[in-house]
Amino acid sequence: MAESVQRFFEALPSRVPAENTAGMTNSYLFEIRGVGSWFVDVRDGAVTVREGEADADVRLAMSESVFEKLVAGEQNPVRAVMTGKIKVKGSRAAAAKLQKILGGASAAAGQAPPGKETLKAALEERSGARLGPLLTAEVVWHGGAAGGGDVEGKDRVLAAWAAGGSREVTDVYLDDLHVVALATVSGAAREAIVMHLEEDGKATQLWVLPSEHPNLAVFLAAEEARARSRFDDADLALIKRFFGDNPVWHMGGKTGWAQDKEGIDTVIATFQGLKQATGGTLELTILEVFADSAHALSHVRLTADRPQRPDKHMDVKEINLFHLDDEGRAYEFWGIPADEAERDSFWID
Questions:
Q1: How does 36-70 read in b/e, with b if 16+ C-beta sit within 10 Å?
Q2: CA-angle at 193, arms to 188 and 194, nearest 5°
Q3: Lowest-pLDDT range of 4-8, 186-190, 309-313
């Protein structure tokens, strides 16, 4: 395996298409446990590699088996980072672009998660009998222990879940990478449950986001600025305060808008483009917001018309899920609509 890893990194500069990394300036240290380390430097389409330790924007540690699957195209790099198979230290924004270097399976590859009704019933049941089969054996509930510590392993997670309050799940949203459920706890407090999914559709990481958190003030100001759609200097400052310099925007779906957008200027231009494409009719109504140290989440309603297509009207609820770095700034976004087909039909001519 060590020889094949060496050969892969030697050939990497010639394997990565220049268009994949055009405009990209990031450095990566790949640490393959038990094998070695390789420094990969990306500078606007040019990729250079050298073996050994070096300072990099992001350090990526993984096992031999995970690396082998990445190289074979059997493991999606984005999913591997999200589910903890690749341990990340440093710039999360750089890690979000890993697929541009390694390629591999698409972000949506994998088995579909359980249906919404199955998830709702499992999350409401305190015994864990229905939730257990939906979790991997190594699942981690971040912040699930008393005092905010992590709970690791399915049995421990289920025990901690059973010890919590009763939940009434009001909404469930899902794509191939996430489950997001909105719930009322013990008849009072509101929370958002976020799960990151493995290829088999089981959850390997779990968070419960409260409706009050220090990260919420900056996040809510940015979402309100985006909802106003003025994009004047004051609102752009609020948006940029929340986003990192190089966020990755995953709109999802099967339309031309579904392509990933990178960089704060490109993301803002996308906001402006959506407004223009709807003749200024696009309205974003914020229903609820949640946050913790790793995520910010807004539950929104999107309505819009297309002036050139009077038969087109959109009225759909959506989860806007932001992944946050250690400074509380968004480096990645995922849009998860209640009905992706309805959203797509609005944008498809």
A1: ebbbbbbeeeebebeeeeeebbbbbebeeebbbbb
A2: 160
A3: 4-8
Provide, rounded to the nearest whole percent, the portion of the chain with pLDDT above 90: 61
pLDDT at site 104: 58
Whole-number Cα distances in Å, 74 to 67, 71, 105, 138, 255: 10, 8, 6, 20, 25
Please list the helix, strand and coil fractions of the chain in percent, rounded to the nearest 5, in that order: 30, 35, 30
Same fold, 2-102 and 216-347: no
CATH number of 2-102: 3.30.1050.10
96-105: per-residue pLDDT in tens?
888 888 875 5
What pLDDT, on the 0 to 100 scale, is given for residue 285? 98
Q: CA angle, corner 30, sides to 29 and 34, nearest 5?
A: 130
The rounded distance, in Å, linking the Cα atoms of 141 and 160 is 9
Domain 216-347: give its CATH code.
3.10.450.50
With respect to CATH, is domain 116-208 assigned 3.30.420.40?
no
Q: Are 165 and 321 in contact (CB under 8 A)?
A: no
**Rounded-to-integer distance, Cα 176 and Cα 193, Å:** 16
Per-residue pLDDT tens over the stretch 121-144: 999 998 889 999 999 999 999 999
How many C-beta atoms lie closer than 10 Å to residue 279's C-beta? Answer: 12
CA 33/CA 19 separation, integer angstroms = 30
Q: Which two tokens stand for residue 223?
A: 């979402």
Q: Is 50 helix (H, G, I), strand (E, B) or coil?
A: strand
From start to end of 91-221, where are the E strands? 135-142, 151-152, 167-174, 178-185, 189-197, 203-210
φ, ψ dihedrals at 123, nearest 5°: -75, -25
263-276 confidence digits (pLDDT tens): 899 999 999 999 99
Asked if 132 contacts 178 with a C-beta cutoff of 8 angstroms, the reply is no
Question: Which pLDDT belongs to residue 108?
Answer: 47
